[in-house]
Structure formats: C-alpha cells, structure tokens
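explain this.
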Amino acid sequence: MRLYYFTAARYAIDDIENSHIKISQISCLNDPNEWLPNVKLVKRAQNMEIDIPVEYVRYRFERTIFTERGIVSMTRRWNNLPMWGLYAEHCRGTVLEIEVDESEVQSVRYCDERVELNKSSMSDFDRLDNNDFDKIVNVKASGWSFEDEMRMILPLHHELCECKDGMFFLPMQIGNSTMDGKARLRLVGVICGPLMAPQDIASLRHVLHDRHPASGVQIEHAVFKGNEFSLERIAR
C-alpha cells in the first residue's frame, strides 16, 4: 500500500542520502498522552479498585516500554493541509511517498477516553502482555483524527534498526535501488511543498540523482489549487 511521510526538507534529503527513515521514540511524540492508559489496581478479594494517577503510569512506562519501542508515523493522504502545516515546515518541507506491505502497519484509533487496563499488583506495570500492549499503542485523542495515521511499531534495539547520535533509523529502499534485503519500506516518490525553497529542491534532486541514479523515484510538486483550500500534484 502507498502511505505518506511528512517531514522537513533537510530531513528528507538526509533520509534519501542515507537510505533510512527516522523512528520516533515514544517519549518524544507530539502528544504526551500517547501510550498512557487509565490503569486501575483491582483487588477482587477486598472488592477494591484504585485509580493509578497517570503521572505515575508515565513514570513507570518511561523506564520500561517507552525505552523499548518506537514508531514510524505515516498517513493515508498526501494532500492533508493541516499535516503540511504541522509536520512539513508550513508547506516548505516534503512528503515522502512510501510503499509498504499492509501487514507491516496498523491503523490508529481516535478516542475521547484513555484505554482502561486492570492490574492486580503494582509489579504488573513492568509486564504488559501482548493483549494490553495492543490496546494502547494505536490509540490517540480524538482531536488528532485529522492525521488519519497509519503507524509501524518497532523494537528500538532490533537488528534492522540503526542508532545514530541518540536517534533511531529504519533502512528504506530508494526506488529500484538494490539493498541487502533489510528494508521494509520503499520510497517511490517525493512531493515538494508549495513553498519549498528552490535551493532545497535543487539539493533534493542532486542527492537523489547522485546517490541513487537508477532509483526511478519521481519528484513532483504540490501546488495550491485555484480558489480551493486544496493541493494538486504536478511534475516540473
């Protein structure tokens, strides 16, 4: 399936030059509420339920699952104007058009309330089972629904991931360029923002043609569409 990754021009150039894409760490996501469930400590023998403060849940998770996994966030639509403004330098950045197997990504659910998890003891915080994990990792507050997000969830210390200057990256195949078989994402197109600087466009073209001359990756430009609040793609 085709998905779209919004980013600044300088990061897109780096991604293409190094054939990788950044993995976002959970503690650095825009919404600090992500991956934070409403946890209840349930003592059935005493017929008792205790709500655990979300601040304490964060404290525990920052030392466990937040350090273990990351995500690559993409979206279904390239012409999402709020996304251009928020993630692509106010239309001065780029969108990477990426091909990925549908089984590799998961759709985000947008909700008004946190996911509820019931735990029988405090030590259970450090032992989330797969069912609990699946409940919380693809849920965001309903106010973020404009993102229409699809995400890939990855162990940060997986053999496919590379760490550089404290940041994590996933290998990405650049078009038809050959790789060693590790890539789970393939770049098939680049869409330059309607306000992208000419020097950034030139740098992007240079690195694509210099480093990956046989990639077949197409560079297109997003332009504002007439009198509508929308965008269209054109080749230049």
